[in-house]
Amino acid sequence: MTLNFAVLALLDGIAYASLLFLVAVGLTLIFGVLGILNIAHGSLYAIGAYVAATLGQWLVANGYNPWLTFPALFAGATIVGIVLGGLLERLLLQRIYAKDEILQLLVTFAVFMILENLQRMIWGVQPYFMSTPLNLLGNVSFFGINYTAYQVLFLPAAAIVVLFALRHFLRHTSMGAQILAVTEDREAATSIGINATRVYFMTFVIGACFAALGGALATPTTSLVTGMGANMIVLSFAVAATAGLGQIEGAAISALMIGIARAFAVYLSPELEVIMPYLIMVLVLLIKPNGLFGKVTARKI
Amino acid sequence: MKFKALYLGGVLTAALSAATLTGAAWAADKPAELKIGITTYSSGSASVFGVPARHAAEILAEEINAKGGVNGVPLKLYFIDEGAGLETLMTEYRRLVEDEGVEVTFASISSGVCNKMAPLAEDLEVVNFMWDCGTQRILEDDKYDYVFRTQANATPEVLAPLAYLLKANPDFKTIAVVNQDYAWGRDSWEIFSNALKIQRPDVKVVAELFPAFGAADFSTEVSRLQALKPDVILSTSWGGDLDTFVRQAKQRGLFETSKFVLPLAESSLQRLGDDLPEGVIVGARGDHYFLHPEMRDKEKFKTFNEKFKARTGEYPIYSAAHMVQAFAALEAVYDKAIKANGGEWPTKEQVAEAMVGLEFQGLGRPLVIREDGQAVEAQLVGTTAKRDGYNFKVIDKMELYDGKDLMAPVGENSLKWIAKFKPDFLSKVPSTSFSHK
């Protein structure tokens, strides 16, 4: 029983960590490059979820092949990331990069509040759901316990693909190299002909797409409710801070730590479940104030 | 000089006290409109209750005003968003009472908010109906002159599903709970588990899970429950939390191994559709159900349901019914107070006085306000079933409980009262049975 339970908790933890990582990686990427802690990341997560759900519901209601809901999740996330993320960066963030950090925080917080109300105007307050992808993949059984294949197979796979794709993009493509160069030293990069404004824009849009993707992929597993963005931004901040802001691989590891610790708490000491992510964050920051992988000097990806 | 000032002051005081005296002794002037302040959630997760209730309030105010208002005085509603935060809420509430001249308030949905609003209403001396909040503590712990509750409280709302479970499913040996980690989730479990301990000391509680309020994922809880295989799983959760938990549990087959008891699931029936299986015990925080077996053919009931459906596309849920009760109490109390006052418009003191012993009826069985300000409300519990004509589960095998049997007597603390239960008390509580037809 003891060994079984450990395996079960591990599976639950990994499924949970996968979603957490998808959202946190966007937050940490944007912070690493732009130096902005984007509170509106939570709205992008929520709106990504709502748009994906709306698309999926529309497909199902109009009799299309239900498997199309899978590409709909990705399509919804991309649309939200590019359109909303792009507009946010162009119209707002571009004007405040040189400003005080507190001001940046307040601006993104204001955007978050506005978008929160916008969601209510568009989608109302009744919980939304679109679980077609989850139902399609069915269940898998471990030690007599049913899991949804979507949560224990598809989500971790998606997270791993994102992690490696992002690594490859940053290390082995020209755009990735430009992003790294701008992160290292914006002035020097600009002087050798890199368009820093464009790099900032691209990074923000990519980060926004990840937030929306996190929301879209969470859609089949949960009910979409008002306020879901706020919960997620707090959690993904805990992940990013534990990792050290700007650390991509670190975000994956700290998401795993938090996800697995939370799952073990449910089995061993349910009272601790709610505070587990923050407990880990506090413990890590007490010992390493810059996070597990954070460096004291410059921001790095 | 000194004497003159003193004299003037004396005259002023006399005049002022005379004015207050006449106000109290005689009737108040009939106002141009009767202003009602209502706190309800229009943002945040509890807006699943707040928004339908607000629709109900607007329908009712239109109805009452169409027939000329309350005793000829039209109603004017002011809404405050409970989701805006306590500070804002209290400032706005104070402003409505002191500046706008709101005469009666309906506050609130959340027990946490009620805890703050009740003393504030008492302080401002404004008649307040606690129209939806669950906690039984407020009127049990303190005595209020201006605060009343126009619905039941957590005690009967939790004991009724337990009574139903004990009767319908007496053979269970293990139970697990999955409640939201906040006041209602904790308090409702306290009542349920205390009563269960006395009614069935042999039943083992195998897991007490309190996931975060608003949690988006219950996968781990579902895994653990599958491993434990409890005979019964209780959850007093609601809204998106309950919907997510039910869907995840259903997808992974938890409903096949455990009997579910969901005391608030009446409010999720229409949203969950086919995702809520048959055979689940559901409650409604009162006798609230759009197919209420004793009320469904009554004209008033049918008209309201039709109007509500036309306006929102849904059948009313319990929070809408609680709003109907608050309006019914409002109309009834003004009638009563005006009669007692020889046909003159009553003062707020007279209204507050008329509340005790007030009888009124919303969409369920008639209610009465006890001397502690608490209403006695019937409770409906049943089992979900699939029936033709509905694309969601309806409630079958209903039991209707009289509120008074499940409520701590006036002046008694619920938990102390429960501690005195005889071992077979709940399974023998009288009820009336109905089937879906």
Write a short abstract of this structure.
The complex is a heterodimer of chains A (301) and B (437). With 301 residues, chain A is mainly α.
How is the secondary structure organized here?
The complex is a heterodimer of chains A (301) and B (437).
Chain A: H1 2-34, H2 41-61, H3 69-91, H4 101-123, H5 132-137, E1 139-142, E2 145-148, H6 149-172, H7 174-184, H8 186-191, H9 196-218, H10 228-243, H11 248-268, H12 276-287
Antiparallel strand pairs in A: 1-2
Helix pairs in contact in A: 1-6, 1-9, 1-10, 1-11, 2-3, 2-4, 2-9, 2-10, 3-9, 6-7, 7-9, 10-11, 10-12
Chain B: H1 2-25, E1 34-40, H2 47-66, E2 75-81, H3 86-100, E3 104-106, H4 111-124, E4 127-130, H5 137-141, E5 147-149, H6 154-168, E6 174-178, H7 183-199, E7 204-209, H8 219-228, E8 232-234, H9 239-251, H10 254-257, E9 259-262, H11 269-272, E10 281-283, H12 299-312, H13 318-340, H14 348-355, E11 359-360, E12 367-369, E13 375-376, E14 379-385, E15 394-401, H15 414-419, E16 431-434
Parallel strand pairs in B: 1-2, 1-3, 3-4, 4-5, 6-7, 6-8, 8-9, 9-10
Antiparallel strand pairs in B: 10-14, 11-12, 12-13, 14-15, 15-16
Helix pairs in contact in B: 2-12, 2-13, 3-4, 6-7, 13-14
Comma- or semicolon-separated keywords:
heterodimer; A: 301 residues; mainly alpha; ABC transporter involved in vitamin B12 uptake, BtuC; two-stranded antiparallel sheet; globular; B: 437 residues; alpha/beta; Rossmann fold; eight-stranded mixed beta sheet; 16% strand
Task: Please name the CATH topology of chain A.
Answer: ABC transporter involved in vitamin B12 uptake, BtuC
Gyration radius from CA atoms of chain A, angstroms: 19 Å
Q: Work out the number of β strands of chain B.
A: 16
Q: How large a portion of the residues of chain B is in β-strands, by DSSP E?
A: 15-25%
Instruction: Output the CATH class name of the largest domain in chain B.
Output: Alpha Beta
The CATH architecture of the largest domain in chain B: 3-Layer(aba) Sandwich
Structural class of chain B: alpha/beta
**Broad CATH class of chain A:** Mainly Alpha
- Beta strands of chain A, count: 2
User: How many structural domains are formed by the residues of chain B?
Assistant: 3
Spatial order of the strands in the main sheet of chain A? 1-2
The quaternary structure here is: heterodimer
CATH topology of the largest domain in chain B: Rossmann fold
Number of helices of chain B: 15
> Pairing-aware structural class of the strands and helices of chain A?
mainly alpha
**Could you list the spans of chain B in which at least 5 consecutive residues all have pLDDT below 50?**
11-25
Our count of domains of chain A comes out at 1
> Whole-Å distance between the termini of chain A?
42 Å
Strand content of chain A: under 5%
